[in-house]
């Protein structure tokens, strides 16, 4: 039933892999974690709004620590979703933006966020009913 158990090479294609996020060692799993973790999703959608310097992005993503934002951006840059541009000025000016891949994925994440936000009145009612029944 559901895909390959690990990352495997298809017999007819020697340079492409089949990826299965459900397989423990599949590299797509860590990419999914980078994108769908709270800070990854928020950073991606914020960057969908435009280019940000680090502290601007940190203010936009309220509540993220400097360390977590730096780690998140580094992972997203490594995966090819975020572009980091450091200009040789004093002090250095570093800007973050989305790559083409990042823009595509950020649009999907933005749709998810908009869907969640639109359902929040019903979610809040469901939480109240659940809590009242406990």
From TrEMBL:
Coiled coil: none annotated. It holds the Pfam family HxlR. Keywords: DNA-binding, Transcription, Transcription regulation. One of its GO terms (molecular function) is DNA binding. It comes from the Bacteria. Residues 26-124 form the HTH hxlR-type domain. SUPFAM superfamilies: Winged helix' DNA-binding domain. This is Helix-turn-helix transcriptional regulator.
């Amino acid at each position: 039933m559901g895909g390959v158990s690990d990352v495997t090479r298809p017999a007819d294609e020697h340079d492409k892999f089949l990826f299965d996020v459900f397989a423990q060692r599949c590299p797509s799993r860590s990419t999914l974690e980078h994108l769908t973790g709270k800070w990854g999703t928020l950073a991606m959608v914020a960057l969908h709004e435009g280019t940000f310097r680090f502290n601007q992005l940190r203010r936009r993503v309220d509540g993220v620590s400097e360390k977590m934002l730096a780690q998140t951006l580094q992972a997203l840059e490594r995966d090819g979703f975020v572009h980091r541009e450091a200009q040789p000025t004093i002090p250095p000016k570093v800007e973050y933006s989305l790559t083409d891949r990042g823009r595509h994925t950020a649009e999907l994440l933005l749709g998810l966020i908009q869907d969640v936000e639109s359902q929040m009145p019903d979610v809040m009612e469901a939480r109240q009913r659940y809590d009242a029944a406990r």
